[in-house]
Amino acid sequence: MTPAESSSMIFTLFNEIGIINQLSTSRFAKVLAPDLNPSEFGVLNHFIRVRDRSSPSRLAKAFQMTKPSMTAILAKLERKGYVEIVGSAEDRRKKIVSITKNGREARQRGVDAMAPLAEILMAGQDVEALAKILPTLQALREFLDAERNAVDGLS
Amino acid sequence: MTPAESSSMIFTLFNEIGIINQLSTSRFAKVLAPDLNPSEFGVLNHFIRVRDRSSPSRLAKAFQMTKPSMTAILAKLERKGYVEIVGSAEDRRKKIVSITKNGREARQRGVDAMAPLAEILMAGQDVEALAKILPTLQALREFLDAERNAVDGLS
DNA sequence: TTATATTAGTTAGATAACTAACTATAATGG
DNA sequence: CCATTATAGTTAGTTATCTAACTAATATAA
Asked: Which of A23, A82, A90, A152 is deepest in the core (most CB within 10 A)?
């Protein structure tokens, strides 16, 4: 590839990724609604799959999201009774967020609702091929993330 | 892979794609600002690379976007003098949108501003690997798009 | 030990996307 | 033909994100 071809390929790649993201997110949103939106589901899922308690800041970082956005998501989840938020005794700036029983159930309903989408994909797409591209995407994501921190001045 | 593993892999994949999209879009936005946002640039770029005149509906479809969103983007581009919008004589429901000289220049400034991003990627990532995953992503995008049309009732 | 800087979280306001509902025009079929 | 349906585009209102600016608490260092 010439540099010009590489450059063009890279923009095509990001364009495809953008469209896939939009199509997949809107499909997820449809099956999760009206109980949860994809961001809310993501947070509940995080409590099950990654760690069962966290802080708003830590969650914001995990989801590559700003703190105010996470504040808003957590407020909605708390209103629905899906997470519990308490102040930390050790560091009184911090809050400790954890999933509730109702939250676990909502997350399970979400998983069940999304399962057919995975099945459709497994039926219509070469899943092995998708698995193969995953490491490259992960490397790209890590690179962009590191790049961003470098540019933003090591936040 | 077991079905459960496939399912989990698929969600991981969409998650990575979502994060990449967010990181790359915000990088693009930074270098394009304050003249254009990525959507506006995309439309101008479309006039250069795909077709030099189009209609709001057609553009909305090309960008997988709703008509009202495209109306808003075109209104901003018209205010900036980057596109011209005239009514069609043949079909008076339709409008014909085309890029202006100023629009071409703005698009070129955008291309120039984004070029360093491509270079950073070429320096830090295996571009051949990125090129290799592109066909799989395109197949996935086409499948999701076809799926969506099927679900929405062949709109 | 006290002034300064950093970290955690929230509030306020802006923006760009969406859906629902509308007007206007064109195409279709009894 | 005329009534119905479909298409093109806009308007109005909602939502989820963002940035900037703020308060409160902790850490650092002169």
From this structure: A82
